[in-house]
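Hey team,

Sharing the HAD family hydrolase run so nobody has to redo it. Sequence (245 residues) first:
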Amino acid sequence: MGGETLNAGRHRFRVRALILDVDGVLLDSPHEQAWRDALTGLADPSRFTSRIYREEVAGKPRLQGAVSALKALGVGNAEGEADAYAIRKQARLEALIRSGGVRPFLDGLRFVERAAAAGLPMAVASASRNADAMLRRCKRSDGGSLLECFSVNLNGCDNGPGKPDPWIVLRAAAELRIPPRACLVVEDAPTGVRAARAASALALGVARSGDAGPLRAAGACRVVSSLDEVDIEGLTSGLWMDACA
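Structure output:
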């Protein structure tokens, strides 16, 4: 961990910045539903489970996620079908967003507001090109958009490999001007946790669907079911991270 550990006597790990995924961490978005709905004609949509979404699609660029999902579902000629599948998914997603199918997780909103009040630098890092539009729709308690809380925005960055490659975490840390080992990455998918660990950053897993096991197995230093469980002051002082060890 670059010389810093979760608990090394008097040398505590103090979080200096946060890097947050969007879907499943900050927003209850219709991405999973859109991928499922777009399967009609290719595979039984009911086979597209939340596990497949988290393990095969979440955190990946759209076309890469389409190929991965189709292969997981055993669809023949997955590479040949992926482009049309991804286009249908995007059209369905935009329709769901227009109909009001996105909302913030209230614990995620509170977490970001508490971190901002504490002066903790934050980045958002999602493969989704729709993340900005959805975050703008979500309002903070003072009426501003949730997107305005982040000093670094890498949403929709598709000029690098998708998670679990560490590229997006390393770039976020570089733009925050904080070493990756001093960042805490907040993720709800094992692929995102693995990206954080590959970048030598710590990862906090958010298990909203009782899926703590895969997040721990991927390397999350701690897993919570709600971000209300996280003590921001403890993160910056090292006390909360000591409790993780």
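Residues 78-98 form the longest helix (21 residues).

Ping me if you want the raw files.
A.
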